[in-house]
Amino acid sequence: MLQFRKMKYYSTNENAPLAGLCDAVIRGLAPDRGLYMPERIEPLGTDFFEHIQDMPFQEIAYIVAQAFFGEDIEATALRQIVCDTLSFDVPCVEVADNIYSLELFHGPTLAFKDVGARFMARLLQHFIRQERKEEIKVLVATSGDTGSAVANGFLGVDGIHVYVLYPAGKVSKIQESQFTTLGKNITAIEVNGTFDDCQALVKAAFMDEELNRRLNLTSANSINVARFLPQAFYYFNAYAQMKRMRKADNLVICVPSGNFGNITAGLFAQQMGLPIKSFIAANNANDVFYQYLQTGDYKPKPSKQTIANAMDVGNPSNFARILDLYSNSWETIKKHITGATYTDNQIREAIKKCYGQTGYILDPHGACAYRALTEKLKPHEVGIFLETAHPAKFKEVVDDILKTNIEIPERLATFIKGKKQSLTMNVDFQALKFLLLNV
């Protein structure tokens, strides 16, 4: 049995007290506006990696979860949280020679964020039962799939109310239906602005003294350690699958990247010993990180609307974690991550080409990652791209490109039939504050 010391979490801005897991999760953002980071990354032993191919996904994830949370949560409770979270498979599917899709869309909302959102919901419920009685208000900004994953992950959870802020007209109708038709403890707020505006409103709420004095606020965006860290689980599971196929040498993983929580979880996995050769961050036209890799200068800018809308982020929050992980060294970051960026037309070309050559249907986000692998993978390497959402969630876009009629899974069809329930507001923090205090 692996033994771990109780984990503390520090702020990337280095001007806040260390926090325990419960406080870090419930705060979401550190008091100095930094993001919480675990004070150490526990390496997993060689025995784990030698036998990982013989373990089921839930067992792999439990061992990884122990390294992060093992001294803060009793073993039986942690195992139950992991098992409840991972009630679905995450298969690696061969798409082309030496290129595999890690299909992350088999969860309840058909998107990769089901893993982090479901884990966080169960972890918060654990803390409420064990340590806190007051209602917690969860704020989340979404450019697409985060809202649906968080809303469904927390739906009906006692002691928690979720507020989903989303940019009006900038998420797909199917995505919107997944968090605006639920009711109960889920409130959807349609903001007349961009995702960056929504994210700024959420961050402002955490910095407001009165709100934090009167309410228990937390975020379920990838700024929260309980949302992004569990996403490391499926990187280990992907490696286990590739070992079973004898394809685990020289692995390159390509991640469609918006707010960079997903790839950051992969980088943590690598630091824990997972033998990944390198990562590729695939961007759409929002290429702030790609430009950073080229120049060493990080220049946030307003987000651009694209057909890969979940990646429409002009100032990725988790960039701060990547900087911290590699001690602010541009040279070190470049050794671990390369970049790619694609226009809408290039994304359309990738979807069309992949379908024509392989019969595999990509969603617009996975298409960025698939194209990057086809262009950058070397002959001796094996590539895995993260297919982060079911293509039916972007049915109008994909059908228009391929001239198909993608079947909508029953889970999605049920959401579409629901009645929209949402509030509307302008980009106005005082309006949000009033709402949080009175709704």
TrEMBL record:
Residues 102-378 form the Tryptophan synthase beta chain-like PALP domain. Keywords: Amino-acid biosynthesis, Lyase, Pyridoxal phosphate, Threonine biosynthesis. GO terms for biological process: threonine biosynthetic process. Pathway: Amino-acid biosynthesis; L-threonine biosynthesis; L-threonine from L-aspartate: step 5/5. CDD domains: Thr-synth_2. Its EC number is 4.2.3.1. The keyword Lyase applies. Residues 8-84 form the Threonine synthase N-terminal domain. Its cofactor is pyridoxal 5'-phosphate. InterPro entries: Ser/Thr_deHydtase_PyrdxlP-BS, Thr_synth_N, Thr_synth_N_sf, Thr_synthase-like, Threonine_Synthase, TrpB-like_PALP, TrpB-like_PALP_sf. Gene3D superfamilies: 3.40.50.1100, Threonine synthase, N-terminal domain. The modification N6-(pyridoxal phosphate)lysine is found at residue 113. It catalyses: O-phospho-L-homoserine + H2O = L-threonine + phosphate. GO terms for molecular function: pyridoxal phosphate binding; threonine synthase activity. It is an enzyme of class 4 (lyase). This is Threonine synthase. The lineage of its organism: Bacteria, Pseudomonadati, Bacteroidota, Bacteroidia, Bacteroidales. The gene is thrC.
